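Predict the 3D structure for this chain.
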Amino acid sequence: MFKSASTAQRRGAAAFMKFLLSDKQTIHWAKQTGYVPLTKTAQHRASYRRYLAKHPNAKAAVSSIQYGYQDPAFLGYNQYFTALNKASDQLVTNQATPKQALTTLQQTTEHVLK
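Done. Predicted structure below.
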């Protein structure tokens, strides 16, 4: 996205991201959508804590963050993840043997990583 952008477009994109990540904006966004604020500092701000006190259902998402897991990101991850889900589905529904599903998954993964 940024390779083809002009200097002004790059500066504009950076300014917009800075705006979105500001505590005030990310807290506003979180309150309006029910999502967790984008930054840890915003999650700890008094205004967001007051919001959580008034809306106890919103606490679940924030409380669960410590137990979350994020897959490592790499080029081709989407294709890999799709192949992984397909293999899992085939195994669960008996459409493929473990050997068939895992062999296909390995081949796809190797192709994606190349």
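The first helix runs from residue 7 to 21.
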